[in-house]
Design goal:
The protein is mostly helical. It contains 29 helices and 4 strands. It is about 70% helix and about 0% strand.
Length: about 625
Protein backbone atom coordinates (compact mmCIF):
# COMPACT_ATOMS: atom_id res chain seq x y z
CA UNK A 1 0.00 0.00 0.00
CA UNK A 2 1.47 3.37 -1.00
CA UNK A 3 1.56 6.62 0.91
CA UNK A 4 -1.39 8.09 -0.88
CA UNK A 5 -3.55 5.21 0.17
CA UNK A 6 -2.42 5.55 3.83
CA UNK A 7 -3.35 9.20 3.84
CA UNK A 8 -6.78 8.32 2.57
CA UNK A 9 -7.30 5.93 5.49
CA UNK A 10 -6.29 8.49 8.09
CA UNK A 11 -8.14 11.50 6.70
CA UNK A 12 -11.85 11.29 6.08
CA UNK A 13 -12.92 11.79 2.57
CA UNK A 14 -15.23 14.51 1.46
CA UNK A 15 -18.05 11.96 1.30
CA UNK A 16 -17.62 11.02 4.96
CA UNK A 17 -17.54 14.66 5.99
CA UNK A 18 -20.74 15.27 4.13
CA UNK A 19 -22.43 12.25 5.79
CA UNK A 20 -21.41 13.40 9.28
CA UNK A 21 -22.84 16.82 8.61
CA UNK A 22 -26.07 15.24 7.45
CA UNK A 23 -26.64 12.45 10.09
CA UNK A 24 -24.45 13.61 13.00
CA UNK A 25 -22.19 11.30 15.03
CA UNK A 26 -24.31 8.16 14.57
CA UNK A 27 -22.68 5.00 15.84
CA UNK A 28 -23.48 2.97 12.75
CA UNK A 29 -21.37 5.26 10.70
CA UNK A 30 -18.47 5.11 13.19
CA UNK A 31 -15.89 2.57 14.08
CA UNK A 32 -15.50 1.22 17.67
CA UNK A 33 -12.34 3.20 18.26
CA UNK A 34 -14.06 6.44 17.48
CA UNK A 35 -17.04 5.56 19.67
CA UNK A 36 -14.87 4.74 22.72
CA UNK A 37 -12.86 7.88 22.55
CA UNK A 38 -15.87 10.08 22.27
CA UNK A 39 -17.63 8.28 25.17
CA UNK A 40 -14.69 9.00 27.44
CA UNK A 41 -14.67 12.58 26.36
CA UNK A 42 -18.42 13.04 27.03
CA UNK A 43 -18.28 11.53 30.57
CA UNK A 44 -15.47 13.83 31.50
CA UNK A 45 -17.31 16.77 30.11
CA UNK A 46 -20.56 15.88 31.97
CA UNK A 47 -18.73 15.22 35.18
CA UNK A 48 -16.82 18.45 34.92
CA UNK A 49 -19.98 20.38 34.17
CA UNK A 50 -21.88 18.75 37.08
CA UNK A 51 -18.97 19.56 39.37
CA UNK A 52 -19.07 23.13 38.17
CA UNK A 53 -22.79 23.39 39.02
CA UNK A 54 -22.15 21.75 42.43
CA UNK A 55 -19.40 24.23 43.23
CA UNK A 56 -21.65 27.06 42.17
CA UNK A 57 -24.41 25.74 44.43
CA UNK A 58 -22.03 25.44 47.37
CA UNK A 59 -20.88 29.02 46.86
CA UNK A 60 -24.52 30.12 46.70
CA UNK A 61 -25.20 28.38 50.04
CA UNK A 62 -22.26 30.19 51.58
CA UNK A 63 -23.70 33.45 50.29
CA UNK A 64 -27.17 32.46 51.65
CA UNK A 65 -28.60 32.39 48.14
CA UNK A 66 -30.52 29.17 48.70
CA UNK A 67 -32.83 29.41 45.70
CA UNK A 68 -29.80 29.81 43.40
CA UNK A 69 -28.17 26.91 45.23
CA UNK A 70 -31.23 24.72 44.63
CA UNK A 71 -31.09 25.63 40.94
CA UNK A 72 -27.40 24.78 40.69
CA UNK A 73 -27.80 21.49 42.52
CA UNK A 74 -30.75 20.62 40.32
CA UNK A 75 -28.62 21.18 37.19
CA UNK A 76 -25.89 19.04 38.66
CA UNK A 77 -28.39 16.27 39.47
CA UNK A 78 -29.69 16.44 35.91
CA UNK A 79 -26.15 15.68 34.72
CA UNK A 80 -25.25 13.19 37.49
CA UNK A 81 -28.52 11.58 38.72
CA UNK A 82 -26.86 8.84 40.75
CA UNK A 83 -24.74 11.03 42.97
CA UNK A 84 -26.17 10.91 46.53
CA UNK A 85 -24.03 13.87 47.52
CA UNK A 86 -25.90 16.12 45.11
CA UNK A 87 -29.32 15.12 46.54
CA UNK A 88 -28.08 15.64 50.08
CA UNK A 89 -26.75 19.10 49.22
CA UNK A 90 -30.03 20.11 47.57
CA UNK A 91 -32.00 18.74 50.56
CA UNK A 92 -30.03 21.00 52.89
CA UNK A 93 -30.79 23.96 50.62
CA UNK A 94 -34.49 23.03 50.68
CA UNK A 95 -34.37 22.95 54.48
CA UNK A 96 -33.05 26.49 54.50
CA UNK A 97 -36.04 27.45 52.38
CA UNK A 98 -38.39 25.51 54.76
CA UNK A 99 -39.46 23.30 51.88
CA UNK A 100 -39.62 20.20 54.05
CA UNK A 101 -41.52 18.09 51.57
CA UNK A 102 -38.86 18.53 48.88
CA UNK A 103 -36.09 18.01 51.41
CA UNK A 104 -37.73 14.79 52.58
CA UNK A 105 -37.99 13.53 49.01
CA UNK A 106 -34.30 14.21 48.41
CA UNK A 107 -33.25 12.48 51.63
CA UNK A 108 -35.42 9.52 50.78
CA UNK A 109 -33.61 9.31 47.44
CA UNK A 110 -30.30 9.50 49.26
CA UNK A 111 -31.33 6.61 51.51
CA UNK A 112 -32.24 4.64 48.40
CA UNK A 113 -28.86 5.30 46.77
CA UNK A 114 -26.84 4.64 49.93
CA UNK A 115 -28.89 2.36 52.21
CA UNK A 116 -25.86 1.26 54.17
CA UNK A 117 -25.33 4.68 55.73
CA UNK A 118 -27.62 5.04 58.78
CA UNK A 119 -26.99 8.74 59.20
CA UNK A 120 -29.24 9.42 56.22
CA UNK A 121 -32.19 7.93 58.16
CA UNK A 122 -31.41 10.27 61.02
CA UNK A 123 -31.39 13.25 58.64
CA UNK A 124 -34.73 12.17 57.12
CA UNK A 125 -36.31 11.70 60.54
CA UNK A 126 -35.08 15.13 61.58
CA UNK A 127 -36.66 16.63 58.46
CA UNK A 128 -40.02 15.09 59.44
CA UNK A 129 -39.54 16.36 62.99
CA UNK A 130 -38.94 19.93 61.73
CA UNK A 131 -41.93 19.64 59.43
CA UNK A 132 -44.14 18.50 62.31
CA UNK A 133 -42.85 21.31 64.50
CA UNK A 134 -43.84 23.87 61.89
CA UNK A 135 -47.30 22.30 61.60
CA UNK A 136 -47.64 22.58 65.38
CA UNK A 137 -46.73 26.26 65.26
CA UNK A 138 -49.44 26.76 62.67
CA UNK A 139 -52.00 24.80 64.75
CA UNK A 140 -52.21 21.97 62.21
CA UNK A 141 -51.93 19.21 64.81
CA UNK A 142 -53.22 16.37 62.68
CA UNK A 143 -50.62 17.02 59.94
CA UNK A 144 -48.00 17.48 62.64
CA UNK A 145 -48.95 14.12 64.17
CA UNK A 146 -48.40 12.44 60.79
CA UNK A 147 -44.95 14.00 60.45
CA UNK A 148 -43.92 13.05 63.98
CA UNK A 149 -45.22 9.53 63.42
CA UNK A 150 -42.94 9.20 60.38
CA UNK A 151 -40.00 10.44 62.43
CA UNK A 152 -40.80 7.91 65.19
CA UNK A 153 -41.02 5.12 62.61
CA UNK A 154 -37.53 5.95 61.30
CA UNK A 155 -35.91 6.54 64.72
CA UNK A 156 -38.03 4.86 67.43
CA UNK A 157 -35.34 5.31 70.08
CA UNK A 158 -35.44 9.12 70.03
CA UNK A 159 -37.72 10.25 72.93
CA UNK A 160 -38.36 13.86 71.67
CA UNK A 161 -40.13 12.49 68.61
CA UNK A 162 -42.44 10.47 70.87
CA UNK A 163 -43.05 13.41 73.16
CA UNK A 164 -44.04 15.64 70.24
CA UNK A 165 -46.45 12.93 69.04
CA UNK A 166 -47.91 12.80 72.54
CA UNK A 167 -48.33 16.57 72.55
CA UNK A 168 -50.25 16.40 69.27
CA UNK A 169 -52.51 13.64 70.58
CA UNK A 170 -53.39 15.67 73.66
CA UNK A 171 -53.95 18.79 71.53
CA UNK A 172 -56.36 16.77 69.38
CA UNK A 173 -58.14 15.44 72.49
CA UNK A 174 -57.04 11.85 71.84
CA UNK A 175 -56.31 11.18 75.53
CA UNK A 176 -56.91 7.44 75.30
CA UNK A 177 -54.28 7.04 72.59
CA UNK A 178 -51.88 9.20 74.56
CA UNK A 179 -52.58 7.11 77.67
CA UNK A 180 -51.75 3.90 75.83
CA UNK A 181 -48.49 5.43 74.63
CA UNK A 182 -47.39 6.46 78.13
CA UNK A 183 -48.47 3.10 79.59
CA UNK A 184 -46.32 1.36 77.00
CA UNK A 185 -43.34 3.48 78.10
CA UNK A 186 -43.91 2.59 81.73
CA UNK A 187 -44.12 -1.12 80.91
CA UNK A 188 -41.11 -1.29 78.61
CA UNK A 189 -38.81 1.38 79.99
CA UNK A 190 -37.52 2.57 83.32
CA UNK A 191 -40.29 4.19 85.36
CA UNK A 192 -39.92 7.68 86.74
CA UNK A 193 -41.89 10.25 88.71
CA UNK A 194 -42.39 12.35 85.57
CA UNK A 195 -43.89 9.47 83.62
CA UNK A 196 -46.29 8.59 86.44
CA UNK A 197 -47.28 12.22 86.79
CA UNK A 198 -47.83 12.46 83.05
CA UNK A 199 -50.07 9.40 83.03
CA UNK A 200 -51.92 10.70 86.10
CA UNK A 201 -52.74 13.91 84.23
CA UNK A 202 -54.06 11.91 81.29
CA UNK A 203 -56.24 9.84 83.66
CA UNK A 204 -57.48 13.08 85.18
CA UNK A 205 -58.44 14.41 81.75
CA UNK A 206 -60.45 11.22 81.16
CA UNK A 207 -62.11 11.55 84.62
CA UNK A 208 -60.46 8.30 85.67
CA UNK A 209 -59.75 9.51 89.16
CA UNK A 210 -58.90 6.21 90.85
CA UNK A 211 -55.93 5.32 88.54
CA UNK A 212 -54.97 9.00 88.60
CA UNK A 213 -54.75 8.88 92.41
CA UNK A 214 -52.58 5.77 92.44
CA UNK A 215 -50.28 7.13 89.69
CA UNK A 216 -49.75 10.25 91.78
CA UNK A 217 -48.94 8.07 94.77
CA UNK A 218 -46.43 6.13 92.66
CA UNK A 219 -44.84 9.37 91.44
CA UNK A 220 -44.43 10.57 95.02
CA UNK A 221 -42.81 7.29 95.97
CA UNK A 222 -40.18 7.88 93.26
CA UNK A 223 -39.81 11.54 94.13
CA UNK A 224 -41.53 12.75 97.33
CA UNK A 225 -40.85 16.33 96.35
CA UNK A 226 -42.40 16.16 92.88
CA UNK A 227 -44.33 19.47 92.71
CA UNK A 228 -46.68 18.48 89.91
CA UNK A 229 -47.81 15.26 91.56
CA UNK A 230 -48.13 16.90 94.99
CA UNK A 231 -50.24 19.80 93.69
CA UNK A 232 -52.63 17.57 91.73
CA UNK A 233 -53.01 15.14 94.65
CA UNK A 234 -53.86 17.92 97.10
CA UNK A 235 -56.40 19.33 94.65
CA UNK A 236 -58.12 15.95 94.36
CA UNK A 237 -58.23 15.49 98.14
CA UNK A 238 -59.80 18.92 98.60
CA UNK A 239 -62.48 18.11 96.03
CA UNK A 240 -63.12 14.78 97.76
CA UNK A 241 -63.64 16.50 101.11
CA UNK A 242 -66.07 18.95 99.56
CA UNK A 243 -68.01 16.10 97.90
CA UNK A 244 -68.20 14.22 101.20
CA UNK A 245 -69.69 17.23 102.96
CA UNK A 246 -72.27 17.66 100.20
CA UNK A 247 -73.17 13.96 100.41
CA UNK A 248 -73.73 14.22 104.17
CA UNK A 249 -76.04 17.19 103.62
CA UNK A 250 -78.04 15.30 100.99
CA UNK A 251 -78.34 12.27 103.25
CA UNK A 252 -79.63 14.35 106.14
CA UNK A 253 -82.23 15.81 103.77
CA UNK A 254 -83.36 12.29 102.90
CA UNK A 255 -82.05 12.35 99.32
CA UNK A 256 -80.10 9.12 99.63
CA UNK A 257 -79.70 8.43 95.90
CA UNK A 258 -78.18 11.85 95.29
CA UNK A 259 -75.95 11.43 98.32
CA UNK A 260 -74.76 8.09 96.96
CA UNK A 261 -73.72 9.64 93.65
CA UNK A 262 -71.82 12.44 95.37
CA UNK A 263 -70.01 10.20 97.86
CA UNK A 264 -69.01 7.92 94.98
CA UNK A 265 -67.22 10.89 93.43
CA UNK A 266 -65.45 11.49 96.73
CA UNK A 267 -64.37 7.84 96.88
CA UNK A 268 -62.95 8.04 93.36
CA UNK A 269 -61.04 11.22 94.15
CA UNK A 270 -59.59 9.76 97.35
CA UNK A 271 -59.94 5.97 97.22
CA UNK A 272 -58.01 5.36 100.45
CA UNK A 273 -60.22 7.34 102.83
CA UNK A 274 -61.88 4.96 105.28
CA UNK A 275 -64.64 7.42 106.24
CA UNK A 276 -65.88 7.63 102.66
CA UNK A 277 -66.25 3.85 102.32
CA UNK A 278 -68.02 3.67 105.68
CA UNK A 279 -70.47 6.39 104.66
CA UNK A 280 -71.13 4.91 101.23
CA UNK A 281 -71.58 1.44 102.68
CA UNK A 282 -74.19 2.83 105.06
CA UNK A 283 -76.01 4.49 102.16
CA UNK A 284 -75.94 1.25 100.18
CA UNK A 285 -77.50 -0.53 103.14
CA UNK A 286 -80.25 2.08 103.46
CA UNK A 287 -80.96 1.72 99.73
CA UNK A 288 -80.98 -2.11 100.09
CA UNK A 289 -77.95 -2.60 97.84
CA UNK A 290 -76.45 -5.05 100.28
CA UNK A 291 -73.73 -6.43 98.02
CA UNK A 292 -72.26 -2.98 97.49
CA UNK A 293 -72.61 -2.23 101.20
CA UNK A 294 -70.70 -5.35 102.22
CA UNK A 295 -67.89 -4.60 99.77
CA UNK A 296 -67.48 -1.01 100.98
CA UNK A 297 -67.67 -1.86 104.66
CA UNK A 298 -65.13 -4.65 104.34
CA UNK A 299 -62.81 -2.23 102.53
CA UNK A 300 -63.30 0.25 105.35
CA UNK A 301 -62.22 -2.37 107.90
CA UNK A 302 -59.23 -3.31 105.76
CA UNK A 303 -58.12 0.31 105.32
CA UNK A 304 -58.38 0.86 109.07
CA UNK A 305 -55.98 -2.00 109.68
CA UNK A 306 -53.56 -0.90 106.97
CA UNK A 307 -53.50 2.71 108.09
CA UNK A 308 -53.00 1.69 111.70
CA UNK A 309 -49.97 -0.37 110.69
CA UNK A 310 -48.46 2.41 108.57
CA UNK A 311 -49.02 5.05 111.21
CA UNK A 312 -47.37 2.89 113.89
CA UNK A 313 -50.35 3.45 116.18
CA UNK A 314 -49.96 7.21 116.35
CA UNK A 315 -53.76 7.63 116.36
CA UNK A 316 -55.13 4.34 117.71
CA UNK A 317 -58.39 5.84 118.99
CA UNK A 318 -59.32 7.24 115.59
CA UNK A 319 -58.73 3.96 113.79
CA UNK A 320 -60.41 2.02 116.57
CA UNK A 321 -63.55 4.15 116.35
CA UNK A 322 -63.76 3.86 112.57
CA UNK A 323 -63.18 0.12 112.68
CA UNK A 324 -65.89 -0.35 115.31
CA UNK A 325 -68.36 1.69 113.24
CA UNK A 326 -67.51 -0.33 110.15
CA UNK A 327 -68.06 -3.61 112.03
CA UNK A 328 -71.40 -2.39 113.34
CA UNK A 329 -72.60 -1.35 109.91
CA UNK A 330 -71.36 -4.64 108.46
CA UNK A 331 -73.42 -6.56 111.02
CA UNK A 332 -76.47 -4.44 110.22
CA UNK A 333 -75.97 -5.09 106.52
CA UNK A 334 -75.67 -8.84 106.97
CA UNK A 335 -78.85 -8.81 109.06
CA UNK A 336 -80.82 -6.65 106.61
CA UNK A 337 -79.64 -8.76 103.69
CA UNK A 338 -80.75 -11.86 105.58
CA UNK A 339 -84.18 -10.27 106.09
CA UNK A 340 -84.50 -9.69 102.37
CA UNK A 341 -83.49 -13.26 101.61
CA UNK A 342 -85.96 -14.53 104.22
CA UNK A 343 -88.84 -12.64 102.63
CA UNK A 344 -88.02 -14.24 99.28
CA UNK A 345 -87.78 -17.73 100.72
CA UNK A 346 -84.00 -18.10 100.55
CA UNK A 347 -83.66 -19.40 104.07
CA UNK A 348 -80.30 -21.10 103.55
CA UNK A 349 -78.76 -17.89 102.20
CA UNK A 350 -80.27 -15.93 105.08
CA UNK A 351 -78.74 -18.41 107.53
CA UNK A 352 -75.27 -17.94 106.04
CA UNK A 353 -75.57 -14.17 106.18
CA UNK A 354 -76.65 -14.25 109.81
CA UNK A 355 -73.75 -16.59 110.55
CA UNK A 356 -71.40 -13.97 109.10
CA UNK A 357 -73.07 -11.33 111.26
CA UNK A 358 -72.67 -13.48 114.37
CA UNK A 359 -68.98 -13.95 113.61
CA UNK A 360 -68.60 -10.18 113.54
CA UNK A 361 -70.68 -9.62 116.69
CA UNK A 362 -71.34 -12.58 118.96
CA UNK A 363 -72.90 -10.63 121.82
CA UNK A 364 -76.16 -9.67 120.10
CA UNK A 365 -79.04 -11.94 121.07
CA UNK A 366 -81.30 -10.78 118.26
CA UNK A 367 -78.94 -12.18 115.65
CA UNK A 368 -79.31 -15.61 117.23
CA UNK A 369 -83.08 -15.10 117.30
CA UNK A 370 -83.18 -14.38 113.60
CA UNK A 371 -80.94 -17.29 112.69
CA UNK A 372 -83.04 -19.54 114.88
CA UNK A 373 -86.10 -18.42 112.92
CA UNK A 374 -84.32 -19.31 109.68
CA UNK A 375 -83.52 -22.76 111.03
CA UNK A 376 -87.14 -23.04 112.13
CA UNK A 377 -88.32 -22.43 108.58
CA UNK A 378 -85.92 -25.09 107.33
CA UNK A 379 -87.29 -27.51 109.97
CA UNK A 380 -83.89 -27.71 111.61
CA UNK A 381 -85.48 -27.87 115.03
CA UNK A 382 -82.36 -28.64 117.05
CA UNK A 383 -80.32 -25.88 115.44
CA UNK A 384 -83.19 -23.47 116.01
CA UNK A 385 -83.39 -24.54 119.66
CA UNK A 386 -79.63 -24.06 120.09
CA UNK A 387 -79.82 -20.51 118.71
CA UNK A 388 -82.80 -19.63 120.88
CA UNK A 389 -81.01 -20.97 123.95
CA UNK A 390 -77.90 -18.97 123.07
CA UNK A 391 -80.06 -15.88 122.72
CA UNK A 392 -81.58 -16.58 126.13
CA UNK A 393 -78.12 -16.77 127.69
CA UNK A 394 -77.33 -13.34 126.28
CA UNK A 395 -80.70 -11.81 127.18
CA UNK A 396 -82.44 -13.96 129.75
CA UNK A 397 -85.39 -11.62 130.44
CA UNK A 398 -86.51 -11.08 126.86
CA UNK A 399 -89.99 -12.40 126.24
CA UNK A 400 -89.30 -12.49 122.50
CA UNK A 401 -86.91 -15.35 123.17
CA UNK A 402 -89.34 -17.04 125.59
CA UNK A 403 -92.09 -17.10 123.00
CA UNK A 404 -89.82 -18.72 120.44
CA UNK A 405 -88.55 -21.26 122.95
CA UNK A 406 -92.16 -22.11 123.75
CA UNK A 407 -92.92 -22.69 120.08
CA UNK A 408 -89.85 -24.83 119.43
CA UNK A 409 -90.40 -27.00 122.52
CA UNK A 410 -94.04 -27.47 121.57
CA UNK A 411 -92.94 -28.51 118.07
CA UNK A 412 -90.42 -30.98 119.47
CA UNK A 413 -93.11 -32.28 121.83
CA UNK A 414 -95.41 -32.97 118.89
CA UNK A 415 -92.71 -35.04 117.19
CA UNK A 416 -92.11 -36.99 120.40
CA UNK A 417 -95.87 -37.62 120.66
CA UNK A 418 -95.95 -38.95 117.09
CA UNK A 419 -93.08 -41.29 117.99
CA UNK A 420 -95.13 -42.55 120.98
CA UNK A 421 -92.62 -41.10 123.43
CA UNK A 422 -95.32 -39.61 125.65
CA UNK A 423 -93.13 -38.78 128.63
CA UNK A 424 -90.68 -36.81 126.52
CA UNK A 425 -93.60 -35.09 124.78
CA UNK A 426 -95.14 -34.12 128.14
CA UNK A 427 -91.80 -32.75 129.33
CA UNK A 428 -91.39 -30.63 126.22
CA UNK A 429 -94.96 -29.34 126.47
CA UNK A 430 -94.20 -28.43 130.08
CA UNK A 431 -91.17 -26.41 128.98
CA UNK A 432 -93.31 -24.69 126.35
CA UNK A 433 -95.86 -23.79 129.03
CA UNK A 434 -93.08 -22.51 131.26
CA UNK A 435 -91.89 -20.10 128.56
CA UNK A 436 -95.42 -19.04 127.55
CA UNK A 437 -98.19 -20.01 129.99
CA UNK A 438 -100.90 -18.15 128.10
CA UNK A 439 -101.38 -20.49 125.08
CA UNK A 440 -104.27 -22.95 125.30
CA UNK A 441 -102.85 -25.32 122.69
CA UNK A 442 -99.82 -26.10 124.87
CA UNK A 443 -102.08 -27.26 127.69
CA UNK A 444 -104.26 -29.19 125.26
CA UNK A 445 -101.26 -31.02 123.86
CA UNK A 446 -100.02 -31.91 127.33
CA UNK A 447 -103.51 -33.20 128.21
CA UNK A 448 -103.24 -35.74 125.40
CA UNK A 449 -99.75 -36.84 126.42
CA UNK A 450 -100.73 -37.17 130.11
CA UNK A 451 -103.86 -39.08 129.19
CA UNK A 452 -101.77 -41.61 127.28
CA UNK A 453 -99.74 -42.14 130.46
CA UNK A 454 -102.95 -42.33 132.60
CA UNK A 455 -101.99 -39.32 134.68
CA UNK A 456 -105.58 -38.18 134.79
CA UNK A 457 -105.38 -35.71 137.67
CA UNK A 458 -102.71 -33.64 135.92
CA UNK A 459 -104.54 -34.02 132.63
CA UNK A 460 -107.71 -32.68 134.27
CA UNK A 461 -105.96 -29.56 135.52
CA UNK A 462 -104.46 -28.92 132.09
CA UNK A 463 -107.85 -29.41 130.44
CA UNK A 464 -109.38 -26.82 132.76
CA UNK A 465 -106.52 -24.39 131.98
CA UNK A 466 -107.01 -24.89 128.27
CA UNK A 467 -110.74 -24.31 128.54
CA UNK A 468 -110.23 -21.15 130.58
CA UNK A 469 -107.79 -19.75 128.01
CA UNK A 470 -109.89 -20.80 125.02
CA UNK A 471 -113.61 -21.06 125.91
CA UNK A 472 -114.51 -21.59 122.24
CA UNK A 473 -112.58 -24.87 122.19
CA UNK A 474 -115.30 -27.55 122.45
CA UNK A 475 -112.80 -30.38 122.04
CA UNK A 476 -111.99 -30.42 125.75
CA UNK A 477 -115.60 -30.61 126.96
CA UNK A 478 -116.00 -34.38 126.35
CA UNK A 479 -112.70 -34.99 128.11
CA UNK A 480 -113.78 -33.03 131.17
CA UNK A 481 -117.13 -34.83 131.33
CA UNK A 482 -115.32 -38.12 131.04
CA UNK A 483 -112.90 -37.18 133.80
CA UNK A 484 -115.78 -36.05 136.01
CA UNK A 485 -118.43 -38.72 135.46
CA UNK A 486 -121.89 -37.77 136.59
CA UNK A 487 -121.05 -34.07 136.77
CA UNK A 488 -122.21 -31.34 134.44
CA UNK A 489 -119.85 -28.85 132.89
CA UNK A 490 -121.11 -26.17 135.27
CA UNK A 491 -120.27 -28.42 138.19
CA UNK A 492 -116.75 -28.89 136.88
CA UNK A 493 -116.18 -25.17 136.34
CA UNK A 494 -117.63 -24.21 139.69
CA UNK A 495 -115.63 -26.81 141.55
CA UNK A 496 -112.99 -25.75 144.02
CA UNK A 497 -110.34 -27.49 141.93
CA UNK A 498 -111.27 -25.40 138.90
CA UNK A 499 -111.20 -22.21 140.92
CA UNK A 500 -107.79 -23.09 142.30
CA UNK A 501 -106.49 -23.85 138.83
CA UNK A 502 -107.90 -20.57 137.57
CA UNK A 503 -106.20 -18.62 140.34
CA UNK A 504 -102.88 -20.38 139.78
CA UNK A 505 -103.08 -19.81 136.03
CA UNK A 506 -103.78 -16.13 136.48
CA UNK A 507 -100.87 -15.71 138.87
CA UNK A 508 -98.56 -17.66 136.56
CA UNK A 509 -99.37 -15.50 133.56
CA UNK A 510 -99.13 -12.30 135.56
CA UNK A 511 -95.73 -13.31 136.91
CA UNK A 512 -94.59 -14.21 133.41
CA UNK A 513 -95.56 -10.78 132.13
CA UNK A 514 -93.88 -8.96 135.00
CA UNK A 515 -90.60 -10.84 134.86
CA UNK A 516 -90.08 -10.37 131.17
CA UNK A 517 -90.13 -7.11 129.30
CA UNK A 518 -91.89 -6.24 126.13
CA UNK A 519 -89.79 -6.97 123.08
CA UNK A 520 -88.24 -4.08 121.28
CA UNK A 521 -89.79 -2.83 118.14
CA UNK A 522 -87.77 -2.57 114.98
CA UNK A 523 -87.56 0.68 113.07
CA UNK A 524 -90.01 1.29 110.30
CA UNK A 525 -87.49 0.55 107.58
CA UNK A 526 -87.83 -3.22 108.00
CA UNK A 527 -90.73 -5.31 106.81
CA UNK A 528 -92.73 -7.65 109.00
CA UNK A 529 -92.30 -11.30 108.22
CA UNK A 530 -94.73 -13.89 109.54
CA UNK A 531 -92.96 -17.06 110.53
CA UNK A 532 -95.45 -19.89 110.45
CA UNK A 533 -95.05 -23.58 110.61
CA UNK A 534 -97.75 -26.18 110.09
CA UNK A 535 -96.98 -29.07 112.36
CA UNK A 536 -98.25 -32.50 111.53
CA UNK A 537 -101.42 -33.70 113.16
CA UNK A 538 -101.25 -35.80 116.29
CA UNK A 539 -103.24 -38.61 114.77
CA UNK A 540 -105.68 -39.25 111.98
CA UNK A 541 -108.55 -39.92 114.41
CA UNK A 542 -107.86 -36.88 116.56
CA UNK A 543 -107.00 -34.34 113.86
CA UNK A 544 -109.17 -31.51 115.12
CA UNK A 545 -107.42 -31.44 118.47
CA UNK A 546 -103.93 -31.15 116.99
CA UNK A 547 -101.93 -27.97 117.49
CA UNK A 548 -101.94 -25.88 114.35
CA UNK A 549 -99.01 -23.53 114.39
CA UNK A 550 -100.91 -21.13 112.18
CA UNK A 551 -102.98 -20.34 115.27
CA UNK A 552 -99.84 -19.57 117.25
CA UNK A 553 -97.84 -17.39 114.89
CA UNK A 554 -94.38 -16.09 115.47
CA UNK A 555 -93.88 -12.81 113.68
CA UNK A 556 -90.30 -12.92 112.39
CA UNK A 557 -89.20 -9.37 112.40
CA UNK A 558 -85.54 -8.58 111.86
CA UNK A 559 -83.27 -8.32 114.86
CA UNK A 560 -85.49 -9.83 117.44
CA UNK A 561 -88.90 -8.20 117.10
CA UNK A 562 -91.40 -10.85 117.98
CA UNK A 563 -95.12 -10.86 118.53
CA UNK A 564 -97.80 -13.44 119.04
CA UNK A 565 -100.67 -11.80 117.21
CA UNK A 566 -104.33 -12.60 117.57
CA UNK A 567 -106.09 -14.81 115.11
CA UNK A 568 -106.16 -13.64 111.56
CA UNK A 569 -109.34 -12.44 109.98
CA UNK A 570 -109.74 -15.66 108.02
CA UNK A 571 -109.39 -17.79 111.14
CA UNK A 572 -111.85 -15.62 113.06
CA UNK A 573 -114.37 -16.09 110.25
CA UNK A 574 -113.93 -19.85 110.49
CA UNK A 575 -114.54 -19.78 114.25
CA UNK A 576 -117.63 -17.62 113.83
CA UNK A 577 -119.05 -19.93 111.19
CA UNK A 578 -118.37 -22.93 113.39
CA UNK A 579 -120.17 -21.31 116.34
CA UNK A 580 -123.08 -20.33 114.15
CA UNK A 581 -123.56 -23.87 112.83
CA UNK A 582 -122.80 -25.64 116.11
CA UNK A 583 -124.32 -23.21 118.59
CA UNK A 584 -125.93 -24.54 121.71
CA UNK A 585 -129.63 -24.73 122.27
CA UNK A 586 -131.38 -21.58 123.34
CA UNK A 587 -132.95 -23.44 126.21
CA UNK A 588 -129.62 -24.02 127.85
CA UNK A 589 -129.54 -22.45 131.29
CA UNK A 590 -126.20 -23.71 132.59
CA UNK A 591 -123.32 -21.47 133.48
CA UNK A 592 -121.11 -19.97 130.82
CA UNK A 593 -117.33 -20.02 131.12
CA UNK A 594 -115.87 -16.55 130.88
CA UNK A 595 -112.20 -16.27 129.83
CA UNK A 596 -109.64 -14.64 132.00
CA UNK A 597 -108.81 -11.08 131.07
CA UNK A 598 -105.23 -11.97 130.23
CA UNK A 599 -103.49 -10.25 127.34
CA UNK A 600 -100.83 -12.55 126.04
CA UNK A 601 -100.71 -10.74 122.72
CA UNK A 602 -97.86 -8.32 122.86
CA UNK A 603 -99.00 -5.23 121.02
CA UNK A 604 -96.25 -3.04 119.64
CA UNK A 605 -96.53 0.67 119.96
CA UNK A 606 -97.36 2.79 116.97
CA UNK A 607 -94.65 3.04 114.40
CA UNK A 608 -92.90 6.29 113.75
CA UNK A 609 -92.75 7.02 110.05
CA UNK A 610 -90.17 9.75 109.87
CA UNK A 611 -87.57 8.80 112.41
CA UNK A 612 -84.15 10.22 111.49
CA UNK A 613 -81.21 7.95 110.93
CA UNK A 614 -78.42 8.13 113.51
CA UNK A 615 -75.07 7.61 111.80
CA UNK A 616 -72.57 5.21 113.31
CA UNK A 617 -74.68 4.51 116.40
CA UNK A 618 -75.06 0.85 117.21
CA UNK A 619 -78.30 1.02 119.19
CA UNK A 620 -78.95 -2.71 119.26
CA UNK A 621 -78.64 -3.40 115.55
CA UNK A 622 -81.07 -0.73 114.46
CA UNK A 623 -83.77 -1.23 117.11
CA UNK A 624 -85.98 1.56 118.29
CA UNK A 625 -86.76 0.77 121.89
CA UNK A 626 -90.22 1.34 123.22
Amino acid sequence: MDASNKSELKCPSSRELRSQKLFGPISIFQTSDVKWSRHLNSDLIIKDKANTHYQAGTEAVDQLEFEKAVSCFTKAIALQSKQAQLYAARAKAYLQLCDFKSAALDYRHVCYLEPQKKEHLHHLAFVYYLQGQCYCDWGMFFEALESFAKAVELKPDVRPYHMRSLACLTALGCYSDALRMVTNWLENETSSADLFTLRARLHHQLNQFVPCYYDLKAALRFNPGCPGARALLENMEQKATSSYQQAVTKALEGELSDALGIITTAVELNPENTQYYLFRGTLYRKLKDFTGAIEDLMLAVEFCNVRAEHSKMEKPEEFKSLEQDAHVQLVLTYNDFAVQCFTQGFYSKATKLLTNAIQEHRDESRLFINRGDCFFRQKEWLFALADYQQAEELDSQNQAIWLRLAIIHNTLGLHSYENLNFQDAADKFSVAIKYNPGVAQFYGNRVKALSKMHRMEEATQDAVCALILDPANDELVPLLLRLFPGCSLSDVISSSMAQTVKTQLKERIQTWRLVGFSPSRLSEKLEDIDLRHDTDRLSETDSESALNQEDVEVGFKPVGYIQIPSRSKEQVNKVVKKLMHQRQSLSYTGPRIAPLCIRHNLEPSARTSNRPYFWRKFGGLGLNCL
